[in-house]
Amino acid sequence: LFAGPVAFLKSAPALHFLPDPVVPEVAFAGRSNVGKSSLLNALANRNGLARTSNTPGRTQELNFFDVGEPLRLRLVDMPGYGFAKAPKDMVKKWRFLVNDYLRGRAVLKRALVLIDSRHGIKDVDRDVMKMLDEAAVSYRLVLTKIDKIKASELVAVTERTVAEARKHVAAHPEILATSSETGFGMAELRAAVLESVL
Ligand code: GTP
Ligand code: MG
């Protein structure tokens, strides 16, 4: 499926701009700067498809990408949460947009909740996980940027993250470790995305 083109469809700055819910969607969620847009690009094998930046708060809308010809699924790149330095009203706007989408989207098959492997799970991540548990949206925890840590650190953060995942009803019991930089874990991530829309 990912051998074909992945094409930008549209940007939704608010819920009433969402595309018609006609195919399954898989959403990329996580704290600002965790690497959501980069991971989507790595998955699609196309640099620059979703816009990335060193500055947190790059993605400010829900961005939809069509996968498959004929159309089989949509990937959704989301604004990050937990970005303390952004203006308060913007943070609030993003939070409502992300939460409302995650809670209320009938075609949302799975969320990927990205966790920076250097930092592990934070309270804001737990809040989002709890919300997904309550909304019965299944999700998978994905460690990002593992090229930035040592093998021993990866073992430790993996153990902690798996332990946390097992406390949440809607979380997949296994986590994925990835690097958009080296491509590590991309085959597993593709398989997880495809499995969720079969
Ligand atoms: P927002 O849209 O602001 O919420 O951020 P985001 O989660 O989409 O993060 P983005 O993909 O823009 O990446 C943030 C920064 O991390 C960029 O400078 C990326 O180049 C870098 N980055 C992302 N993934 C990786 C990775 O796997 N390894 C390394 N070394 N850097 C990464
Ligand atoms: Mg982004």
From TrEMBL:
A Pfam family: MMR_HSR1
GO MF assignments: GTP binding; metal ion binding
Function: Necessary for normal cell division and for the maintenance of normal septation.
Domain named EngB-type G: residues: 22-198
Family indicated by similarity: Belongs to the TRAFAC class TrmE-Era-EngA-EngB-Septin-like GTPase superfamily. EngB GTPase family.
Keywords: Cell cycle, Cell division, GTP-binding, Magnesium, Metal-binding, Nucleotide-binding, Septation
Protein name: Probable GTP-binding protein EngB
Cofactor: Mg(2+)
PANTHER family in the cross-refs: ENGB-TYPE G DOMAIN-CONTAINING PROTEIN, MSS1/TRME-RELATED GTP-BINDING PROTEIN
GO biological process terms, semicolon-separated: division septum assembly
Domain of life: Bacteria
Gene that specifies this protein: engB
GO annotation, cellular component aspect: cytosol
Family matches, as InterPro entries: G_ENGB_dom, GTP-bd, GTP-bd_ribosome_bio_YsxC, P-loop_NTPase
Species this chain originates from: Edaphosphingomonas laterariae
Keyword tRNA processing: no
